[in-house]
Design brief:
The complex is a heterodimer of chains A (about 220) and B (about 300).
Chain A lengths: L2 E4 L2 H8 L4 E7 L2 H4 L5 H13 L3 E8 L5 H9 L2 H6 L2 E5 L2 H10 L4 E3 L1 E5 L29 H4 L26 H11 L30
Parallel strand pairs in A: 2-3, 2-4, 4-5
Antiparallel strand pairs in A: 1-6
Chain B lengths: L5 H7 L4 E6 L7 H11 L5 E4 L11 H10 L4 E6 L5 H13 L4 E5 L20 H14 L15 E6 L6 H14 L3 E6 L3 H13 L7 E6 L5 H10 L7 H8 L6 H17 L4 E6 L8 H7 L11
Parallel strand pairs in B: 1-2, 1-8, 2-3, 3-4, 4-5, 5-6, 6-7, 7-8
Classes of the chains: A alpha/beta (about 220), B alpha/beta (about 300).
């Protein structure tokens, strides 16, 4: 069970600044269980964003958003609504956000912070995609996580060891910063990477070492 | 002048700067540093001491810097984010400034996996760009990373590295721009063997006007053997060694390869010197420091400006 909570509304609105229309995706699995992105929260978010002048082109709640095959299938029925949206807001943990980012050629905003995996791992066999850092960075990185997938957790771009799309630490690991660069280039948003990203707040992260759970 | 750095003084005087590097020992022997420092003295404007390069435990950079300073050289301390969080970094920055060390090269650091303690926990609380920004804020705003103020600021001339040969190439200049925006005063690049690619990178640097905001020192290094060239070509992450370089070394008898490697280094210095925006060279002859004077002399970079501290 991945434990997540919604980001503060101002933060989400900041992400959506400049987007007129939004498609919202939630998950009936963990996010439903933790009240961060189930049916009800998706409907509430749609209302809230309408109240802020956004057009909601549609919404979708998938049983297990981290299941890539299932999500791909579900997304097919919403091609038009997604095409009509400027961006997609995903209300679930970091794994779900990255699943959507991988399937859709559109800007994907994370609506939640992932606090803990609750001891269980997600559906991804090939790589861990979320390190429960509690302060989701996917907004700035094209929906690919540099905390979980960069050997040095870099936030301002690739290190000097990225060559041939591979991580210097292990040639079997793709360089996630190359992937981030490629995806943002494809989305016409590569200038996002020019922004200086400030030091991260690790105090909300489980890997920082605090054994205290914020959810009971 | 932002600092009392000799390197800053040289670069600001538009003199083509020469820095070199000194590898600290894997033990507590200060004589190793003294010996290497005496070799470099008079031939360089400042010297770097690596900070646990390739993640192997060695004498601390700041300590070896201090020993070299006692020998009358200007040190550049290297500081990586691999082993220190923001608390430790700031404590070390205050410490080196108090010791009279005026330059610091901000690095993310080689991954711990490559070293002799691969089981170590990597820190990476900050990345190199955030480290640059933090030193800049400490120096120019007297602020710690948390925002609290300090009474006496560390007057550090801020360096950063850049690798024109890593991927994605298109992003490498943008990354340099980020380091400049964060507060880098000087840059020491990855070792240049592919001069054409370096020249293309410098062109893009000039297109953005970055060469006017930061002093760029091109990294160069002599090669001792054909094996070393091949190793760098295939095994060292982020290196670009063209086939022509390997072929040039292969083209001479084995006993003459070191001489040819030195000549190649001098040739590259002469080539990068002609590129607009290159403010100096950084000669990396790790564990081969004794050839640095010969290289500097052959490249006609002597005499060096008198050290003022």
């Amino acid at each position: 069970m991945l434990i997540s909570e919604q980001k503060p509304l101002e933060e989400i609105l900041g992400y959506l600044d400049g987007d007129k229309s939004v498609f919202i995706i939630g998950c009936r699995g963990c996010a439903e269980g933790w009240g961060s992105g189930g049916e009800r929260q998706v409907a509430e978010m749609a209302n809230t964003l309408r109240g802020k002048g956004k057009t909601i082109t549609g919404s979708l709640v998938v049983d297990m958003l981290c299941d890539g095959a299932l999500t791909r299938l579900k997304l097919r029925a919403y091609k038009k609504e997604i095409a009509a949206a400027d961006s997609i807001l995903v209300l679930t943990d970091g794994v779900g956000v990255q699943t959507v980012a991988e399937l859709v050629n559109k800007v994907v905003h994370p609506g939640c912070n992932t606090l803990s995996s609750g001891g269980a791992h997600a559906e991804w066999k090939e790589a861990e995609r979320c390190l429960e850092c509690g302060d989701c960075m996917l907004e700035f990185t094209g929906g690919l996580c540099p905390i979980a997938r960069c050997s040095k957790h870099l936030l301002n771009g690739p290190c000097g060891g990225s060559q041939g799309s591979k991580c210097e630490v292990d040639p079997n690991i793709p360089c996630v910063w190359q992937q981030i660069f490629d995806r943002l280039t494809k989305l016409g948003q590569v200038n996002k990477l020019e922004k200086l990203v400030a030091p991260k707040n690790w105090s909300v992260s489980l890997i920082s070492g605090t054994p205290v759970k914020r959810h009971s | 002048m932002k600092t009392r750095s000799n390197l800053e003084r040289v670069l600001e005087s538009k003199i083509f700067a020469v820095t070199s590097e000194l590898g600290p020992p894997q033990n507590a022997d200060p004589e190793v540093i003294r010996k290497k420092a005496r070799i470099l003295k008079g031939h360089v404007d400042a010297f770097n001491v690596t900070d646990g390069q390739t993640a192997v435990v060695r004498m601390a950079s700041w300590a070896a810097c201090l020993i070299g300073k006692e020998e009358g050289l200007e040190p550049i301390v290297q500081m990586t984010c691999r082993d220190r969080n923001r608390i430790a970094l700031q404590m070390d920055i205050l410490g080196i400034a108090a010791l009279g060390i005026n330059n610091m090269l901000c690095l993310t650091g080689d991954h711990q996996k490559f070293g002799n303690h691969p089981a170590a926990k990597g820190v990476y609380d900050l990345d190199s760009i955030q480290l640059v920004q933090m030193v800049k804020d400490m120096r120019d705003s007297r602020k710690f990373q948390c925002g609290e103020e300090m009474a006496i600021e560390p007057r550090i001339y801020i360096g950063a590295a850049e690798n024109p040969f890593a991927d994605p190439f298109e992003f490498r200049v943008a990354r340099l721009a980020k380091k400049v925006a964060a507060g880098a005063d000087f840059i020491q690049t990855q070792i240049v063997y592919n001069v054409d690619k370096f020249a293309e990178w410098m062109k893009r640097v000039r297109d953005r006007g970055l060469h006017e905001k930061v002093k760029i020192l091109a990294g160069v290094a002599p090669i001792k053997s054909v094996g070393a060239a091949r190793y760098m070509k295939t095994r060292v992450p982020g290196m670009d060694v063209p086939d022509s370089v390997v072929a040039r070394l292969q083209g001479v008898p084995k006993e003459r390869v070191p001489k040819e490697g030195i000549r190649l280094c001098v040739d590259i210095i002469n080539q990068v010197r002609e590129i607009e925006g290159v403010a100096g060279v950084h000669i990396m002859a790790i564990e081969w420091e004794e050839v640095v004077p010969e290289i500097v002399e052959a490249a006609k970079l002597l005499p060096r400006p008198r050290l003022v501290t």
